[in-house]
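Whiteboard transcription, Tuesday session. T.W. wrote the structure tokens on the left side:
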């Protein structure tokens, strides 16, 4: 695919000023990038999709996703580190749920985009 480029080098100060005033700090871009990395794996997306419906333990997730317990645990650890999921202990079981509703919104909008 050919990309069109400017024929002359011309800076547009009003556009640059407007755009530069909206840029985030580098740490915010890094944090956002990490979240998008977490959402780039199909297994993690399946885990999140299941957690949109209900809080679940690793054993339940293993049954739903048909993936090994160690794989589920590994992915949950990654999701927990980025604060996308949280856990609570109940007796000998650990239950996982979404940390907040933001990821569900991103998921829903992405799915809408994919289905268009």
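and on the right, the sequence the group agreed on:
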């Amino acid at each position: 695919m050919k990309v069109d480029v400017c024929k002359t080098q011309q800076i547009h100060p009003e556009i640059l000023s407007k755009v530069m005033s909206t840029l985030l700090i580098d740490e915010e871009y890094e944090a956002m990038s990490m979240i998008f990395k977490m959402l780039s794996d199909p297994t993690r997306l399946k885990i999140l999709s299941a957690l949109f419906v209900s809080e679940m333990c690793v054993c339940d997730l293993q049954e739903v996703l048909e993936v090994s317990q160690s794989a589920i645990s590994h992915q949950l650890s990654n999701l927990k580190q980025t604060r996308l999921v949280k856990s609570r202990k109940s007796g000998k079981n650990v239950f996982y749920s979404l940390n907040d509703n933001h990821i569900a919104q991103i998921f829903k909008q992405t799915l809408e985009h994919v289905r268009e």
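Someone added at the bottom: Strands lie at 56-57, 85-90, 93-98.
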